Amino acid sequence: MHAPAIRRSYRAFPSLTVALRAVLAAQLAVIVAATLLSAGPSSADQRPAPADGRLGAAADPSFSDAPSRATERTIASAAPAEEAVRGGTGKPALTPRPRAAATRPPQPVPSVSPGTILAATPPPVAVSGMGASSGGSPSSGVLSAGSPTGNSSSGGSGGSSKPAPAAAPNLGGPLPSCAYLDVLTPHRGLGDWSRTLLDTTYQLPASYAPGDLVDTSAAGLNGGYAVRSLVVGDLAAMAAAARAAGAPLAVVSAYRSYSKQQGTFQNWVNVSGYDAALRTSARPGHSEHQLGTTIDLTSEGGAAPWDYGDWAATPAGAWVAQNSWRYGFVVSYPRGSFNRTCYSYEPWHVRYVGRERAAAIARSGLTPREVLWSLQ
Question: Which one of 145, 155, 344, 346 counts the least CB within 10 Å of its CB?
Fold first, then answer.
């Protein structure tokens, strides 16, 4: 059939044209529906809607409660890192830091630490004529080991992270072993200077500071050091007697505050290590120098006393060992007494306790620590 004729036929039968279009549209709809059914539902459509009722979770396949892997990598790379030294190489290894507080690298633990018991307990001592009195250790004065103020953390709920310090020994009883504790000494008033017990266990508070300090030049010795005014009279008499005997003295150390002793002890730790420092230097609060009645002596014009093989073998040192008690001074750490004093031999370290008490200590043959222990 020619084209003009066909066009005339369509114009002649308009209803037929509409019917054909409807059929074609229906067939196309069937084809599209079949194609969609054969593809099946997506995994996103199978996911149930979130329980909290938020919209869009089921219909939007990009919605997710968890961050994507790319997001996690971004967060991890942006998170701060801390240095962790491994294997002693000194090279830091960067590791992601959690939200919790960062942990510090483990610190070296000294082989001798607060709470350590070193020496065997000597037998009980008796001091005749000293008016010894018995007494217990004050429970309110016991501080945590290594804490001069007692403000130490004992850990939160669920257990303590630090063992409890050893119990304070019974004052007035048998002399205990050398223990490195921090217990406030019971007689710690400024007026208790002659009986205040200071050792590796008992200490003064950081606030202890005499208000009557004077320069050692007031006693006719070299200046630049401080002692309590109550010491000056007998110190001047001792210095004059030593000079008259041909053994003139000089001062190398006297009063040291709590903070000053912190630096002194740390210096000896730096020089000889922690264990050795415990034997030759007092921890802050435990030093007799804080009393303001203790002096380190040497020979006038000589070296520091600890630089001699034995300062007690020098004229000045020998004179002090034999005569210092006559003027109220005692050698706190005599030769061969570590198990009783807890410190190494120091012939230059003298403490003023007054003439009467110094004479009683000299007669007893005991160390000052043993005598003072019986007086607590």
Answer: 155
